[in-house]
TrEMBL record:
This is Small ribosomal subunit protein bS16. Residues 111-128 have a biased composition (Low complexity). It comes from Marinibacterium profundimaris. GO terms for molecular function: structural constituent of ribosome. Pfam families: Ribosomal_S16. NCBIfam families: S16 (TIGR00002).
């Protein structure tokens, strides 16, 4: 069985609350799970200790059994200090989209033309 440690959403509309659960990866996100391992409340401030609560003994047990944490759970485990910080690299995240690049190219071209136009009268005056 492919096990995951993941978030199962609860709470009402626009008021999310998550359970940290060990579940079969083939089950739906909010469906049946094997064990509840903790809670995550994203509405609380980041420095509040009630924001993320985990039963670390059980989390470690499931990790030893081969359960794979999702990206968000892996970050929570890194913050708790039970997992080594993984190197993340997404070089395309900061690059602008096609339209933004086209606008930047047009702006650069206009700036170059304006610089040429400004330099042309100065060059003519220097030649005289």
């Amino acid at each position: 069985m492919a096990m995951k440690i993941r978030l199962a959403r609860g709470g009402s509309k626009k008021r999310p609350f998550y359970r940290i659960v060990a579940a079969d990866s083939r089950k739906p996100r909010d469906g049946r799970f094997i064990e509840k391992l903790g809670t995550y409340n994203p509405l609380l401030p980041k420095d509040n200790e009630q924001r993320v609560q985990m039963n670390m003994e059980r989390v470690q047990y499931w990790l030893d059994q081969g359960a794979q944490p999702t990206d968000r759970i892996a970050r929570m485990l890194e913050a708790a200090g039970t997992r080594e910080k993984a190197e993340r690299n997404n070089p395309n995240k900061g690059t602008p989209g096609k339209k933004a690049q086209e606008r930047a190219d047009e702006k650069a071209a206009k700036a170059a033309e304006a610089a040429e136009a400004a330099n042309a009268p100065a060059e003519e005056a220097a030649a005289e």
